[in-house]
Design brief:
CATH class of the largest domain: Alpha Beta
Shape: globular
Helix content: 40-55%
Radius of gyration: 23 Å
Number of helices: 18
CATH architecture of the largest domain: 2-Layer Sandwich
Structural class: alpha/beta
Number of domains: 2
Largest sheet: 6 strands, parallel
């Protein structure tokens, strides 16, 4: 078979991302497509750059007849570097295909580096792409209508798959909410597509056997969006005696259903990732989150009631944010016992409604790598860039201060002693995991502060110069 050796590459994110070294969770799109090609007789591998060293990357690029890059915004520039390296290794030959959210929104940008760009979802056309039977440099694919038609992804195709700490599972695609800052609906549409619970159970069994571990991350952008299907899945998990702990991403309004959250806890949910975004209702409305601060507060209470930890995700820099937002948000998280959180700069991802409606004069980033949430990329209205960056740093430092870590220990000890909603072993594990997680985040924030001192000093100098200019003018 010609062009038989296929290599999928997911480039590492920008080095400026403080969580870059811990991003070991692979995207599932490349694994679905790689499994399809394996079943069709191709020699195929999937390489996530965070899981390998440079020499492994080079060796695999040399062997590949076709290179397929999956690009997110913060991994795009690195992806172009890999494409250029591949061309040199193959004397300007070989074949390169690029897909993913970023190039789906910006296909023309990638053309100087690759042979074909795919807009949309790759699985329906992947075999024709590698067979080179689809003409045109920009190819548009249709969505996967039936998720049950996709194979169970073969995780053994991922180089160094044994390093995975959590098993990746995707049970749905799409989201109807259309938050203004989000790329998901642009790529996957505003209609939910669900996988049959029986297939999910088979997928779990398969991965448990391969990896010999039972910690799961449900990748769905909004897990439990269809509670009927979720309850069916929970019942089948219990019926098959699949005892495991899992984490997922949900919306805050899920917690309006107290009984459902209890059911999540009963079948092993240990942590939820929630994009709260803001504690300001005006900002939430501007971002079209379709959730209120009151609902956020209620969600925190309900998830904690059943021993489910919360990782809250917030963004700063909306037009309603003033310098008080940092102290107020940090206090909100600490007072309500949110176990961990990240605080990012609002980011104008290409292709989003937020970016399209933004006055272009307010875009102040120099490189796609800066669209990582840890650079100020939109000129704030009620503070300077330096105040914004210092506020993000301050909020993280307060969230992971020794005082806050000690307060979390006390909360977890009270839960161990007083709550009857989880087993004793689970409650002790929760305490230990929260402690370890917060100490790790504390170290990460410290390293970020040291490694990006030059950027912070640049903003400080710019801030000082602005003040001098303003003084002279007045």
């Amino acid at each position: 078979m010609k062009n038989n050796n296929i290599l999928f590459v997911e480039p590492r994110g920008a080095r400026s991302n403080i969580f870059e070294n811990s991003l070991q969770h692979p995207l599932l799109g490349p694994l679905y497509m790689a499994t399809q090609l394996k079943e069709a007789g191709y020699n195929v591998k999937v390489l996530k750059e965070n899981l390998v060293d440079e020499s492994t990357l080079i060796n695999e690029l040399i062997l590949a007849d076709t290179l397929i890059l999956t690009l997110l915004t913060t991994s795009t520039l690195r992806g172009y570097e890999i494409a250029q390296t591949y061309r040199k290794l193959h004397n300007n030959g070989g074949w390169i295909i690029a897909g993913g959210i970023h190039v789906s929104c910006n296909p023309e940008e990638a053309l100087p580096f690759v042979d074909q760009v795919v807009i949309g979802e790759g699985p329906p056309i992947i075999k024709r792409l590698v067979d080179r039977t689809i003409a045109g440099r920009i190819v548009t694919s249709s969505p996967v209508e039936d998720l049950n038609s996709l194979p169970i992804p073969d995780l053994s195709l991922l180089i160094n798959y044994s390093k995975l700490r959590l098993i990746p599972i995707m049970t749905s695609l799409g989201c109807p909410y259309g938050c203004a800052f989000c790329c998901v609906t642009k790529m996957y549409g505003r209609k939910y597509r669900f996988q049959d619970p029986d297939k999910t159970v088979n997928e779990l069994k398969n991965h448990f056997q391969l990896l010999g571990k039972k910690r799961v991350f449900f990748y769905d952008d909004n897990f439990c969006a269809n509670k009927k299907i979720s309850l069916e899945l929970f019942d089948k998990i219990e019926k098959n005696n699949l005892n495991f702990l899992w984490v997922c991403q949900v919306r805050a309004d899920l917690a309006k259903d107290d009984a459902f959250v209890k059911r999540m806890a009963d079948v092993g949910c240990r942590r939820v990732f929630i994009g709260f975004e803001s504690i300001n209702d005006k900002t939430l409305n501007d971002l079209r989150k379709n959730v209120s601060l009151n609902e956020i507060e209620g969600a925190i209470e309900v998830f904690h009631k059943y021993g489910i930890a919360i990782h809250g995700m917030f963004m700063f820099g909306s037009d309603h944010d003033d310098p008080d937002v940092f102290e107020n948000t940090a206090n909100f998280c600490i007072q309500r016992g949110i176990e961990s959180a990240q605080f990012l700069s609002i980011t104008p991802f290409p292709g989003t409604e937020f970016r399209d409606k933004l006055d272009k004069s307010r875009l102040i980033y120099k490189s796609l790598d800066e669209l990582d949430g840890f650079h100020v990329t939109v000129l704030p209205k009620q503070m300077t860039e330096y105040e914004m960056m210092q506020g993000i740093l301050y909020t993280h430092e307060k969230m992971y201060s020794w005082q806050k870590i000690f307060q979390q220990i006390i909360r977890d000890l009270k839960f161990v002693l007083l709550s009857k909603n989880r087993s004793l072993s689970y409650k002790i594990l929760k305490l230990v995991n929260n402690l370890k997680r917060n100490i790790v985040f504390r170290l990460i924030i410290s390293r970020w502060k040291n490694n990006h001192r030059e950027y912070h000093e640049y903003l400080k100098a710019k801030y000082s110069q602005t003040n001098i200019t303003s003084s002279i003018s007045s």
